[in-house]
Amino acid sequence: MRLFSKTLFVCLLISFVGYSQTTANNLKYLKQKTPSSTPEIFAPDLISKKSEYEFGSVFNKAGTEFYYGVDTGNTSEIRFTKLVGKTWSKPKTILSDTRFGYNDPFLSPDEKRLYFISQRSLDGKGSKNDHDIWYVEKQGNSWSAPINAGSNINTKNDEYYISFTESGTMYFSSNKKNAAKKQQSFDIYYSEFKDGKFQEAVVLSEAINTKYYEADVFIDPKETYIIFCANRPEGLGRGDLYISFKNTDGTWTKSINMGNTINTKGHELCPYVSSDGKYFFYTSNQDIYWVSTKFFDTLRK
After folding, report:
1. CATH architecture for residues 32-300
2. Which residue of 17, 32, 80, 290 lies most exposed, with the fewest beta carbons within 10 A?
């Protein structure tokens, strides 16, 4: 009788743990049904709305917080929702201003900083003609005032989009090599984070950068692949998503178009992969889409 009771207890415990894990998984990603190999609009009418333009999204590692950018038609702002108990909170705006926009949110590896881009002036009293990369620091349940990422990142030209490796190296894009600030002249850079500050930015090789537009870069935290938006003659639309994989010698393979599973005649941008590596998020037709990352294996081949 004692053995039976012990066995029954173990079985019930295993069942409870399995049920709890399943329940937790069902609460992730705003309770949305996860996609397969066909891209689907993410959280329609909740996040992706017909009346707005959504872009630049990121979850925290636990999958319990979601940040994303929205162009309302008047300005761009950053919104946030979180899992409270078993319910996701109503999305609220956490960064906005009538003078300048905020967009392209991305969390630092330790999640103590939220990075973004803005035309905010350095004194915070006005706007300027170019975008810089900024961040706010976590302060309990709130955030600090915006802090500029510094001169090793920002220039008098535009700096766009942000993503990080596990070690804190920042990948971003800039058109700083072009004095005329032409939109088609963006390249992708990286900057290592050492001794509490970003180092001088380094431009990536010709496997990634060309004479055409390359921006909106997502770097796999382990640096096994890199995804970015490019506008090239062989592309399918106004901007396509490309991918490159890292070779064993540390170089990058020649970037390839991710194909018509992802790209359309329109503009695909703002790539992001969830921290569990399972889902690929991006913006298309002014909405956020997501799809299983299993199709990456066919691209790798």
Report:
1. 5 Propeller (2.115)
2. 17
